[in-house]
Write a structure and sequence with these properties.
Shape: globular
Largest sheet: 7 strands, parallel
Strand order of the largest sheet: 3-2-1-4-5-6-7
Bound molecules: uridine-diphosphate-N-acetylglucosamine, uridine-5'-diphosphate
Oligomer: single chain
CATH topology of the largest domain: Rossmann fold
Number of domains: 2
Structural class: alpha/beta
CATH architecture of the largest domain: 3-Layer(aba) Sandwich
Mean pLDDT: 92
Strand content: 5-15%
Number of helices: 18
CATH superfamily of the largest domain: Glycogen Phosphorylase B
Helix content: 40-55%
Radius of gyration: 21 Å
Number of strands: 13
CATH class of the largest domain: Alpha Beta
Length: 403
């Protein structure tokens, strides 16, 4: 019998380490025919292709090639391009991840085509609607049929917003599945050594939030703080393309390049990045994913943001929100070893992808008529049968041991 087709959407750097473990688990299970759709929101080799090779991801079945643009342009282009694919293939469900523009765009398309939407990493809230990601999270979650959350705060947020309990499932944090899949290669990787760095004797920096990097004033403050941190701790800073452009536009690139203790590099691949982070003394970031990875690895994380949608990384982990003006003092504290230790939150265990597959089988393999009571049986959507070829994904064992 032909297997049901499901679409898995990837768009930007933080999506790849979330969809890769899911694609591997779906392939091993074999119940569905998973087709990867890449919207092309990120397109530079070091923001996209690098992760396909690092994480052993299959070639996308569809590449929408939407590229950069304003929020409306990007969202609109994804909607137009994905609508055609979704109409042609009528997947049994479409899985969207995270909170980028493509996530919300695809969710809107599916909702109107009556294609069930599954949101991986649902329920996170910064309660800060000046962040474009918060808008994407709200839109996606209100439309999603199945909401897979990483932590109890996610469940609570969704309940408070009136999402029916039957749609919410806590599956854990899938980013750490990628870490566990790649652990051997991350530990064997030579990136730290090749940069002349020693374990525990440097910091890693990533910055790309518009509120930090787009305007000159906040960016200049961060540049000045990083220069001072580098006086007592060498820093490695893989620079996001948004930040690279802004540093150049505001004439600030030279202020970082001229500091001997700061090594500016292009964005690095997943294995290289995790090799650097796993041996770092501390991490300075405004990234969502990096807050989680540092909690998992028990590395001090200084998040230069006024809020986080990932509060569990503070309540249980090593993450602390740091006002930019206090960065030097807090980094000195962390570098001296005066920083709270953390523990791994529940279900951040490298097994999230397996729980996602179990959820999909439970919800979509045994269809019930439209209109059926979801609380009695969560699989309230008929599944169109679909034929097609199986996507080639390297076996997980082979992936782990690849050089
Ligand atoms: C996007 C996401 C953000 C996520 C981040 C991860 C939205 C609203 N934002 O932000 O949530 O944290 O990705 O990295 O979806 N650019 C390139 N090459 C690329 C991609 C982007 O040069 O491959 C440059 C372009 O100038 C572009 C700018 O970066 O205009 C911003 O890209 P965009 O995808 O709009 O937002 P990000 O800042 O990357
Ligand atoms: N990352 C990477 N190379 C880099 C910077 C980041 O591989 O140079 C990975 C890292 O695993 C991180 C993920 O990309 O958790 C998330 O990317 P980003 O910070 O761009 O997005 P966010 O999580 O803030 O949405």
């Amino acid at each position: 019998m032909a297997r049901s087709v499901i679409h898995v959407i990837a768009a930007a750097r933080p999506n790849f380490m979330k969809v890769a473990p899911l694609l591997h688990a779906l392939r091993e299970d074999g119940s569905f025919e998973a087709r990867l759709v890449h919207t092309g929101q990120h397109y530079d080799a070091n923001m996209s292709d690098a992760f396909f090779s690092d994480l052993g991801m299959p070639e996308p079945a569809h590449h929408l090639g939407i590229g950069s643009g304003s929020h409306a342009e990007q969202t609109g282009r994804v909607m137009i391009a994905y609508e055609a694919v979704a109409q042609a293939e009528r997947p049994a469900c479409t899985i969207v991840v995270g909170d980028v523009n493509s996530t919300a765009a695809v969710a809107m398309v599916c909702a109107k085509l009556l294609i069930p939407v599954v949101h991986l990493e649902a329920g996170l809230r910064s309660f800060d609607r000046t962040m474009p990601e918060e808008i994407n999270r709200l839109v996606t979650d209100v439309l999603a049929d199945v909401l897979w959350t990483p932590s109890p705060d996610g469940d609570e947020n969704l309940r408070r917003e009136g999402i029916p309990e039957s749609r919410i499932e806590r599956v854990g944090n899938i980013m750490l599945d990628s870490y566990e899949l790649m652990r051997e290669r991350i530990e064997a990787d030579g990136t730290m050594h090749s940069m002349g760095l020693a374990p525990g004797a440097y910091g890693v920096v990533t910055l790309h939030r518009p509120a930090n990097v787009d305007e000159r004033e906040p960016l200049a403050l961060l540049v000045s703080q990083l220069r001072q941190v580098a006086e007592f701790l060498p820093l490695v800073f893989p620079v996001h393309p948004r930040t690279r452009k802004s540093l150049a536009a505001h004439g600030l690139a030279g202020e970082l390049e001229s500091v001997p203790g700061i090594r500016l590099v292009d964005p690095v691949g997943y294995v290289q990045f995790m090799n650097l982070v796993s041996h770092a003394r501390l991490v300075i970031t405004d990234s969502g994913g990096v807050q989680e990875e540092t909690t998992y690895l028990d590395i001090p994380c200084l998040t230069v943001r006024p809020n986080t949608e990932r509060p569990v990384t503070i309540s249980e982990g090593t993450n602390r929100l740091v006002p930019p003006a206090e960065l030097v003092g807090q980094a000195r504290r962390a570098a001296s070893g005066d920083w709270p230790r953390g523990r791994k939150p529940e279900l951040w265990d490298g097994q999230t992808a397996a729980r996602c597959v179990a959820s999909l089988k439970h919800r979509f393999l045994f269809p019930t008529p439209v209109g059926a009571d979801l609380s009695a049986n969560p699989s309230a959507h008929p599944i169109p049968s679909a034929a097609g070829t199986r996507t080639a994904v390297p076996a997980v064992a082979a992936l782990k041991s690849r050089p």
